[in-house]
């Protein structure tokens, strides 16, 4: 069981690294695009008509992929100073409950994100000429990865806990 968890954990780490590369590219592109838009508007008295929509799309996608990646790397904000002072067994239960809340919330994002994307697919972004739902399709996609990362993290924690007690799983 331990080798399976390690293998899946390696895959999840690889996915998170890919997310980080995509996010870095998107944020770099976003900074360039917004900077160029400011220069074009205030120095050349013109603007890039599609820049605002593409910036919105990039920001939405980078944010949601980043939120999923933060679950994998355990980078979200929480009060570790309190959690770390708890006994190991209580800490394990508390973290499992917290992961359950994350799973519920991510499931809700999947469900409602699909509804939102479907409802807005009929509209079109005026400058980019792509469906508005393209902006929102990242919600269920990222939430599925949030759920996947959370479940794997739970298994890692449980297997790690059993190994620290002398178990062989």
Automatic annotation (TrEMBL):
Q: List UniProt keywords, sorted A-Z.
A: Cell inner membrane, Cell membrane, Membrane, Transmembrane, Transmembrane helix, Transport
> Could you give a GO molecular-function term held by this entry?
transmembrane transporter activity
Q: Could you tell me which species this protein originates from?
A: Vecturithrix granuli
**PANTHER family per record:** 2,3-DIKETO-L-GULONATE TRAP TRANSPORTER SMALL PERMEASE PROTEIN YIAM
Q: Which domain of life is it from?
A: Bacteria
Coiled coil spans: none
- Subcellular location field: Cell inner membrane
Q: Where is the Tripartite ATP-independent periplasmic transporters DctQ component domain?
A: 31-158
GO terms for biological process, alphabetical: C4-dicarboxylate transport
Q: What is this protein called?
A: TRAP dicarboxylate transporter
Record flagged with keyword Glycosyltransferase: no
Q: How does it sit in the membrane?
A: Multi-pass membrane protein
The family line of this record is: Belongs to the TRAP transporter small permease family.
Question: Could you tell me which InterPro entries the record lists for this protein?
Answer: DctQ, TRAP_DctQ
State a GO cellular component annotated for this protein: plasma membrane
Segments spanning the bilayer are 21-44, 50-71, 92-110, 130-152
Pfam families documented for this protein: DctQ
């Amino acid at each position: 069981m331990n080798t399976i968890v390690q293998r899946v954990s390696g895959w999840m780490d690889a996915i998170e690294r890919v997310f980080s590369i995509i996010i870095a590219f998107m944020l770099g592109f976003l900074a360039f695009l917004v900077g160029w838009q400011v220069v074009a508007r205030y120095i050349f008295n013109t603007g890039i008509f599609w820049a605002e929509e593409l910036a919105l799309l990039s920001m939405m996608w980078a944010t949601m992929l980043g939120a999923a990646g933060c679950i994998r790397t355990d980078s979200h904000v929480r009060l570790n100073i309190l959690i770390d002072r708890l006994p190991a067994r209580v800490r394990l239960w508390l973290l499992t409950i917290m992961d359950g809340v994350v799973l519920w919330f991510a499931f809700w994002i999947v469900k409602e994100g699909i509804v939102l994307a479907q409802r807005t697919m009929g509209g079109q972004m005026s400058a980019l000429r792509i469906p508005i739902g393209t902006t929102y399709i990242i919600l269920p996609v990222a939430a599925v990865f949030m759920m996947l990362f959370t479940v794997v993290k739970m298994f890692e924690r449980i297997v790690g806990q059993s190994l620290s007690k002398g178990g062989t799983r």
